[in-house]
Amino acid sequence: MTNEIRTIFDRIAPVYDQLNDLLSLGQHRIWKEMTVKWSEAQVGDTALDLCCGSGDLSLRLARRVGAKGQVYGVDFSPAQLTIAKERSRSQYPAPPITWIEADVLDLPFEDSQFDAVTMGYGLRNVTDIYRSLKEIHRVLKAGAKAAILDFHRPSNPQTRTFQQWYMDHLVVPIASQMGLKKEYAYISPSLDRFPRGKEQVEIAYQVGFASATHYPIVNGMMGVLVLTKKS
Predict the structure, then answer these.
(1) Using H for helix, E for strand and C for coil, what is the string for 163-177?
(2) How many CB atoms lie within 10 A of CB 74?
(3) What is the chain's mean pLDDT, rounded?
(4) Three-state secondary-structure class, residue 192
(5) CA separation (Å) from 2 to 49, 103, 125, 200?
């Protein structure tokens, strides 16, 4: 990860959840629940949430694995992790989450450690998608799944035009009012660079996953990549 991207996520941390609501038309909670479901995390599992941000997916995973389970929330942004820790402390009973500042391209975990992995809005921002998926593959147990949620450029021209209009006329102006125009202007070029679902599946197979399926959501403006490690 570059220092520039880390700085962006540190700066947007205080309004990250609010702007996620805006970016997703308020639907991101539903998509995160779908992502947790597709990870197939079970009660008592040890699960990993990468690029955890303010902790939303991590907290959902923690509810899924229960008090006998364990969740690790990983992010490279100290400001995001501070908010995640505060959210976690406000929960009762305290969720079984350990927060770790680390780079998803070089995870501080043993091989085959996790029963499930999730990532929300992170794969699009890593500097090396192949290496990131390789690390996910490494830390997953045999037969376990990863579910990766992110924004995408839709292939349909009309939907693509709507997405760009929405970004230009609603998201960026509101971010500008919050003093974050530069930080949120990066989203459009990041979408242009991000591989389409089919390409993500191809990379996943190159990494070594036994199965890989990309599920488009909201006319292709969102998607979940579901990966299974060989049993």
Answers:
(1) HHHHHHHHHHHHHHH
(2) 24
(3) 89
(4) helix
(5) 20, 10, 9, 21
- Which H, E and C letters describe 78-107, residue by residue? HHHHHHHHHHHHCCCCCCCEEEEECCCCCC
CATH number of 3-153+195-228: 3.40.50.150
Residues 31/39, Cβ–Cβ less than 8 Å: no
Q: How much of the chain exceeds pLDDT 70, in percent? A: 87
Q: Where are the domains of the chain?
A: 3-153+195-228
Pairing verdict, β 114-120 and 46-50: parallel
pLDDT tens digits, 72-127: 999 998 888 999 999 899 988 889 999 999 999 999 999 999 999 999 989 998 99
Q: What is the spatial distance between Cα 41 and Cα 49, in angstroms, rounded to a whole number?
A: 11
Distance of CA 189 to the CA centre of its chain: 18
- Kindly report, residue by residue over 159-190, the tens digit of the pLDDT: 999 888 888 887 778 778 777 777 677 778 88
Angle formed at CA 222 by CA 221 and CA 223, multiple of 5 degrees: 135
CA terminus-to-terminus distance, the chain: 31
The SS3 of residue 147 is: strand
